[in-house]
Amino acid sequence: MKAPVLFIVIPCYNEQEALPITAKRLTELTDDMIAKTIIDPASRVVLVDDGSRDDTWRIIRELHEADGRFEGVKLAHNAGHMNALWAGMTLSAERCDCMISIDADLQDDVNAMYGFLEAYQNGADVVSGVRSSRETDTWFKRTTAQGFYRLMGKLGVEMVYNHADYRLLSRRALQALLSFGEVNMFLRGMVPMLGFKTAEVYYERGERVAGESKYPLKKMIAFAMEGITSLSNKPIRYVLFLGALCALLGVAMAVYVIVAVAKGHTVAGWASLMMSVWLLGGLQLMALGLIGEYVGKIYMETKRRPKFILEEHLK
Ligand code: UDP
Ligand code: MG
Questions:
Q1: Is the CB of residue 244 less than 8 Å from the CB of residue 287?
Q2: Can you list the alpha helix ranges (DSSP code H) found in the chain?
Q3: pTM of the model
Q4: Rounded to the nearest 5°, which phi and psi values hold at 81?
Q5: 249 Cα–ligand 1 center, Å
Q6: Per-residue model confidence as pLDDT tens digits over 78-95
Q7: Which residues hold their Cβ within 5 A of ligand 2, which is an ion?
Q8: Residue 215: CB within 6 Å of ligand 1?
Q9: Does any ligand 1 atom lie closer than 6 A to the CB of residue 84?
Q10: Distance (Å, rounded) from C-alpha 278 to C-alpha 44?
């Protein structure tokens, strides 16, 4: 079979420390793959600068000038990891046979790509890279991440356990994914919806090659919220059940109050009154907040805003 044209898409946000190392590794890797005719020489590495404030774009430009294999995409502002990836995928879809997305810090083992391409040659349209261990992550990151996968499973969102955004998509899988119109994106929950033949490749997750995580706790929480509310309606149903339960309790309470009145001891009751006021008030606020979350999503979806704004494309 003919060697496929592979596009490797890498979102980069303030990655000036990691990029030179990453670029060198990818040069070696693609050289080797081309030599072994695993991939076509027309293959590219697409570096998407997600509105970085450091020297990332200058480095990308230099890489592109030195070696045409590196393409640069500059987004006009920080659109976020998922949108940066989407930008890279959109700009690659027409020109590649398959695409691999990977983070700029190379925490995910690039050698797993050999396995990805082998699975692709064997007919897989979607190949997910799965971390066989998470020892290099902090205890906190590991536990929160695993709790999140479990929660998503409970909420009915199909996801590959311990798989991040290191994956191969064939051209047709990529085009199918790009036809999803939603603005609120959670790619690792969307890819399993594509169907198609899938495969998994296991690898050890390493340390960042340089620089520090671009995902502080605040972004992690926002990311998890995004995943839940953009893919699952179950939280809203749980609130409904909770509301129903409260209403039932309220009925029981009413019976109790009527009995109490009939018996004539009606003075004391401040405590239970206060309790119900607080409890119900709290629950109502919670429900409202959650509904607001979805209304906010509808609001964003109806705007049909572009997911990214392109400033420059070096190709
Ligand atoms: N990233 C991005 N935009 C952002 C935040 C992160 O493009 O707003 C990129 C970042 O450059 C990296 C990838 O997303 O290539 C994953 O980020 P990171 O490795 O910092 O996350 P972690 O591995 O700590 O979860
Ligand atoms: Mg990382």
A1: no
A2: 18-35, 56-66, 81-92, 112-121, 139-154, 171-178, 187-190, 217-231, 234-263, 270-303
A3: 0.84
A4: -45, -55
A5: 47
A6: 999 999 999 999 999 999
A7: 103, 105, 107
A8: yes
A9: yes
A10: 59
